[in-house]
Amino acid sequence: MADYIMDNMHKLYLQYKSVSVYSAVAAAARPLAELIAATDSSHRVQSAAEVFRAVADSDCDSTGEWIKKLVLADDNPFSRAAARGERISPKIKAQVQNELLTFKQLSLVKPSEFSGDAPFFPQFGFGGFAVTYDGLLQAYANNGCGVLSGGDSFVYRDGAFKAAAARSERLSDLKGYIEEKYEIEKNTKSFVDGLPAFHTLLYGERGMGKSATVRAVAGEFSGRLKLIEIADISELQELVKKIRGLKQRFIIFADAVDVDAWQANRAAIDRVLDDAPDNYLVYCTIDRARDGERRDALSYSQSELALFDRFGLVVTYLSPDSDGFVDILKQILRSRAIKWRDEYGSVAELAARKKGGRSPRAAKQIADLIECTYAQKRCD
């Protein structure tokens, strides 16, 4: 390798060693840095192989795309400040600009500069690091940083965020409960539009579609808010501290909360609900024990009433009557292009009795059975 190339590579390696704000990105890019610093063929081949594998594992086509992905997801003092819209000090700005230049230069390193005549040398893709300082500021403000930058759906457990699979179900996929869905969608739209909105409680028997409604509504506003499902309600206050001040908007979703667990953490939870949020709302579902009959919306226990007072919006999901249950089943079958038959109504009512009540979940299970039977008859 020519002396001037060696000198440039040495200078680039020293630049790499000076990376401090994006130290985690530098650590991940270590094989690329070791490639340019390697002095023997064995070390070069090994480093190139690690670079090739890292690029492939990140589902990218080049080192530039790989490093860009790491930078956009990094959690550091600069990315956190940018995600909150805070002032960036001149020293931090200058350091970040230098590090971005270093990453760009690293991404332009070609495997051919080190492979010599070795046909087996890993030929990784290079280039593609199109990242600017101003672009980063905007990206962090829009998407957040760290784990929260990686999508719109997360789980919070044991003090940490974890990306969750994106949900494809939409409100149109959920049958029945038109007014209930409208109330929740309207409240959520007000929230993402920056208008007054309320912490919301969804209450009713199991299987009524409360949880599915929250997830579907969040999906309707994908790109404008993020859904965080909290596994333990006792961690609510700590979660809020971590997202407070971020430019993004969040729905914190506590599903199937136990009333006793709520009461045990009431003081901390009340502080969260009494706060005037600008970037988060709490959506909570509570299941009522099924008794086999349709319940009066006003027949709540005193502990439940005390809990309802903490929410600005309470949406009650009542068990449908026989006609409503059949109508939900008809809608599900129609969406699957299955023609309605009168005997399905009798099948539905019998199945509902066996399951202990009528619900959209029960209707879906019956529809699955009908569809399976229908498919078998078509094959015979």
Topology:
Blueprint: H1 3-17, H2 23-28, H3 30-37, H4 41-57, H5 63-73, H6 77-83, H7 90-107, H8 112-115, H9 133-143, E1 153-157, E2 160-163, H10 178-192, E3 200-205, H11 210-220, E4 226-230, H12 236-243, E5 250-254, H13 259-264, H14 266-274, E6 280-288, H15 302-308, E7 313-317, H16 322-335, H17 343-355, H18 360-379
Parallel strand pairs: 1-4, 3-6, 3-7, 4-5, 5-6
Antiparallel strand pairs: 1-2
Helix pairs in contact: 1-3, 3-4, 5-7, 6-9, 10-11, 16-18, 17-18
Textual characterization of the structure:
The protein has helices at residues 3-17, 23-28, 30-37, 41-57, 63-73, 77-83, 90-107, 112-115, 133-143, 178-192, 210-220, 236-243, 259-264, 266-274, 302-308, 322-335, 343-355, 360-379, and strands at 153-157, 160-163, 200-205, 226-230, 250-254, 280-288, 313-317. It is α/β, with parallel strands linked by helices and 380 residues long. The chain has three domains: 3-145, no CATH class; 163-317, P-loop containing nucleotide triphosphate hydrolases (Rossmann fold), CATH 3.40.50.300; 322-379. A seven-stranded mixed beta sheet has the order 2-1-4-5-6-3-7, sandwiched between helices. Helix 16 crosses helix 18 (360-379) and helix 17 crosses helix 18 (360-379). The longest helix has 20 residues, at 360-379.
Features:
Rossmann fold; 380 residues; elongated; seven-stranded mixed beta sheet; 3 domains; 18 helices; 7 strands; alpha/beta
Can you count the beta strands? Answer: 7
Annotated CATH architecture of the largest domain: 3-Layer(aba) Sandwich
Which sequence of strands runs across the widest sheet?
2-1-4-5-6-3-7
Question: Into which percentage range does the β-strand content fall?
Answer: 5-15%
Question: What's the total helix number?
Answer: 18
* CATH class category label of the largest domain: Alpha Beta
Low-confidence stretches: none
Helix content: 40-55%
Mean pLDDT, as a whole number? 86
Strand-pairing-aware structural class: alpha/beta
Specify the CATH homologous superfamily of the largest domain.
P-loop containing nucleotide triphosphate hydrolases
| Overall geometry | elongated
The major beta sheet can be summarized as:
7 strands, mixed
